[in-house]
Design a protein that fits this description.
By secondary structure, this protein is of the alpha+beta class. It contains 3 helices and 11 strands, in the order E-E-H-E-E-H-E-E-E-E-E-H-E-E. It is about 15% helix and about 35% strand. The longest helix is centred in the first third of the chain and has 12 residues, at about 35-45.
């Protein structure tokens, strides 16, 4: 990560662009995380003495790029976390799948179990201990070469690796996802991008919507008409 890209900031929140393959929080790799980068940015920009407060309210998997929001006060962190828990934050993703889903538009509901020893997730029965319900809506936007699909996904729950596992469950794994059995053409990065985040500002109560394109000059995104499906207009805040 060469430079932190800030999409919006005020005294309560900061919205940033997470590059792919950068961890959301510190992990065993020792690589700079988004949490570290945002904290450093706030500390240096505002000449904060001591430790700058940054509240982590959600995460993106390390291979996933796109929009993240952090809180700048404990009150904002609490209110944003509650919005996410109650499903009041809209999170939409773009993905490229290997294989075209049989149904062009559907809701997927599964129960997922995480194996901590391998950091992998699998679909399981609801009765399995530790299983958690995972729900998403997807829509096929466009296909390429009768092998790949550009898919819009809206998360209705926020489980780890959720999109990757549930799309694999319908025989449409994400391009570049070696962990969950992706096949077909090679991709330098996982083809998953958090392109839209809608939330209620924790203090002003205004609805805020953020959208950002994936790297459309790179494969696989440039194989599709991404701009056709993401309506980026003047922010409504």
């Amino acid at each position: 990560m060469e430079e932190l890209i800030v999409l919006y900031e005020d005294n309560h929140i900061i919205v940033v662009l997470k590059p792919q393959n950068v961890p959301s929080v510190p992990d065993g790799s020792g690589d700079v995380s988004m949490y570290d980068a945002v904290k450093k940015y706030i500390k240096e920009k505002y000449d904060k003495p001591g430790d700058a407060f940054i509240g982590l309210v959600h995460r993106l998997d390390r291979p996933t790029g796109g929009i993240m929001v952090f809180a700048r006060t404990s009150k904002a962190a609490s209110r944003l976390s509650e919005q996410i828990r109650s499903g009041d934050v809209r999170k939409r993703y773009l993905a490229v799948t290997c294989g075209i889903p049989r149904e062009r538009q559907a809701r997927l509901t599964n129960y997922l179990v995480k194996d901590e020893s391998t950091n992998t997730v699998r679909i399981a029965a609801a009765a399995i201990e530790g299983s958690k319900e995972a729900v998403l809506d997807y829509k096929v936007l466009e296909t390429y070469d009768n092998k790949y699909a550009l898919v819009s996904v809206e998360l209705l729950t926020g489980r780890g690796h959720q999109i990757r596992v549930q799309m694999k469950g319908i025989n449409a794994p994400l391009l570049g996802d070696g962990k969950y059995g992706s096949v077909g053409a090679r991709s330098r990065n996982l083809a998953l991008w958090a392109y839209e985040l809608c939330l209620t500002h924790p203090t002003t109560k205004k609805t805020m919507a953020f959208k950002v394109f994936p790297p459309t000059d790179e494969m696989p995104w440039k194989a599709f008409s991404v701009e056709k499906y993401i309506n980026v207009s003047k922010p409504n805040f």
